[in-house]
Write a structure and sequence with these properties.
About 20% of the residues lie in helices and about 35% in strands.
């Protein structure tokens, strides 16, 4: 029997994968998630008993595994997913944080929220319907958010007699589309979530398929958590000045390292002021260390007594981000109230919040066919578009393609603090494959 200590040690040595699921209404996404949790033995006995009881009350003989994930009453009644639900489970090989996101077009903003931190996205397709408009929307959102791995789960293969040509045609169409958006890795898996084919256990009905099951792929897909290889960034959260008899001259800058690593003696620059210094010391968990890396929370001490406050960014002197007051970005509007040209907002980037104004909304993206709607004037809930924002103070902003953590920001209503828009600095999509031509128009989307 595994002891608590052994279990804790096992969890500490396994990697963590954050992934999101998305699928059109009735594609069986909630059933897939429920099957994944059930067959991987990640469901508690009382949870399973509650699902079995609810299923019997509906006149169903077998447990409806979709009820394991659809927690809201409206979700259960309508048979759709509305809100983002986070599920935590683990296998001996890996730990998982699953963001179960809605598939309906009116909940695009919810999918953006769930997939913003995901390293993998599972996109479900009904084998009977193939790639539909909503499938293309999900692929586009995954590409916009720079999700590095996408799994195409072709569900309900049992309803097409487990036919290989059906799966092959869908996989070919989706892979070509996602690759054109710059998605670097696409894996297609034929499944039946209801019957359990190729979810956790290999299917006996599809001997023509020699690839991994969904869980096997989730357990083995390469996941890079090595943020030390990224551009080093340290947003200052709090200035520590105890001014006690024991520490009369102590001045430290506390926060969480967003990316990269910092070393004692390293030359750094403080942005947006541009003043330079060297790291005199790093304190972590009450002890002095020579090096610290993301995502550790530390206190950095500088050799020079310079003005540093909350919201400033410490970076290597020879690898600093550009400082700007003009932010061009792709955004997803998440509030019910629209975002309009000329609107005054607050822009929150890491630990820094500044006043800003929306100078222009050059285009709105139509996710159905990835066409542009030029100069819409405003964005409404679930819209994705390009914006130009002018800030009252300079920002040290990376592009989202370089850093998902320091290239993202929020636009906030200054009146009531409501989050209006989630932004990704820089171009919309990854660059096209080598050899493909891009549009000459400077305002065109970068595919």
């Amino acid at each position: 029997m595994t002891t608590f200590a052994q279990h804790a040690e096992q969890l500490s040595t396994t990697t963590l994968l954050r992934f999101a699921t998305a699928g059109s209404v009735d594609d069986g996404k909630s059933t897939l998630v429920g099957r994944l949790l059930h067959d991987s033995k990640s469901v508690l006995t009382d949870q399973l008993e509650a699902v079995e009881h609810a299923s019997r009350n509906r006149g169903q003989e077998a447990p409806d595994l979709a009820l394991l994930t659809d927690g809201l009453r409206a979700e259960r009644e309508q048979g759709i997913t509305i809100d983002v639900a986070y599920r935590y489970f683990a296998t001996p090989r890996r730990r998982f944080i699953l963001a179960d996101t809605p598939g309906h077009v009116q909940y695009t903003r919810n999918m953006v929220t769930g997939a913003s931190t995901a390293e993998l996205a599972v996109v479900l397709v009904d084998a009977r319907n193939g790639v539909v408009e909503q499938t293309r929307r999900h692929a586009a959102v995954a590409a916009l958010l720079r999700v590095p791995h996408v799994v195409l789960a072709v569900n309900k293969m049992d309803l097409v007699d487990y036919a290989e040509p059906v799966f092959a045609a869908i996989a070919e169409e989706f892979t070509a589309y996602a690759a054109s958006l710059g998605v670097p890795e696409i894996t297609a898996i034929p499944i039946s979530a209801l019957a359990g084919d190729n979810v956790v256990e290999p299917s006996a009905h599809m001997d023509w398929y020699g690839g991994p099951t969904v869980l096997e792929h989730l357990e083995t897909v390469p996941v890079s958590h090595d943020l030390t290889a990224c551009h080093a960034r340290f947003p200052v959260q709090y200035v520590i000045r105890p001014q006690t008899a024991e520490h009369p001259d102590y001045r430290g800058y506390a926060g969480q390292i967003a990316a990269g690593a910092f070393r004692v003696g390293e030359a750094v620059i403080v942005l947006p002021s541009g003043r330079t210094s060297t790291i005199a010391g790093i304190d972590a968990l009450g002890e002095s260390v020579d090096i610290a890396w993301a995502p550790q929370s530390v206190t950095i001490r500088l050799a020079d007594d310079i003005d540093v406050s909350r919201g400033d960014l410490i970076a290597p002197a020879d690898d600093a981000p550009a400082v700007t007051q003009d932010v061009e970005a792709t955004v997803c509007h998440v509030a019910d109230q629209p975002l309009a040209v000329g609107q005054r907002v607050l822009l929150k980037h890491t630990t820094r919040t500044v006043k800003a104004i929306v100078k222009d909304i050059p285009s709105r993206l139509t996710l159905d066919d990835l066409s542009q709607h030029p100069a819409p004037g405003r964005l409404v809930a679930n819209d994705i578009g390009r914006v130009v924002v002018r800030t009252a103070e300079p920002l040290a902003l990376d592009t989202y393609a370089d850093s998902r953590r320091t290239g993202s920001f929020l636009l906030i209503d200054p009146a009531d603090g409501t989050t209006l828009t989630a932004g990704m600095a820089g171009e919309a999509f990854a660059a096209t494959a080598a050899g493909e031509e891009t549009a000459d128009d400077d305002t065109a989307w970068d595919f």
